[in-house]
Amino acid sequence: MTTRAPQHEKEPGENFFSPAFFSRRAALALPALLLAKRAKAAVILPEHVTQGALVTGRADPGTRLTFEGRDLRVSPDGIFAFGFGRDAGSHATLGITTSDGRREERRLTVVPREWDIQQLHGLPPRMVTPDAMALARIRAEQERLNAARRTNTPTPYFAEGFEWPAQGRISGVYGSQRILNGQPRAPHLGLDIAVPTGTPLVAAASGRVTLAADLYFTGNTLLIEHGHGVTTLYAHMSRHDVREGEAVSRGQVIGLSGATGRVTGPHLHLGLFWLSTSLDPRPVLP
Fold it and tell me: Whole-model pTM?
């Protein structure tokens, strides 16, 4: 008799190799899937992914991987992650070297997405067109953000899955073209959750705080790295309750929501990154 692995319904954009797949709910499905695929390849990952996607997968222990020529961190039990930006091209290459030295290249197809257009009015002019002094501050803050996003630690906490840091109306989505006070600006690279000032915010996954600062555009901001360069960002907070370098657990209160930085009202801006690449948080959330 053939035993079939249990299935679960997928959210739009989710695949069986997203962080949700590695949650406890899906843990029983993984051994059967690994056995079914091992004869064909040392690596399990989706054949098709979308722009903005965080991609996670498993490889046989001892496998070495590169993504577009860049070495990937692989945990001792074979978990790895990488991501595609908003404007990723149609194809990418994953290089595979097995523990016995066999080499393979896996060609990945990247499915394009259509992006919304969002108009925002009533922003202070200095938040749309900063002056020279503000621009110098913004550049310095961007260097701090970039340094924090380069953090790449070995424990894959992201494989435990993510949870919503707050519950509220979705007021902004990833990838949308922003028109600020009538002027086109950079796309929105996060998920906005409209909640009142003072709403407790929790860590979406376990990890370590790599940045806790008051920044020009994002106000009181936290970054938490969840292993392998996977990082979440929490912006416009009214208060931080954790410090840089502090370890946090999934579901732990990390501060309160607010309306600091460039906003039209109180909300949480949730960002997701793989190293320097901005990703869409929505598909990894339950």
Answer: 0.80
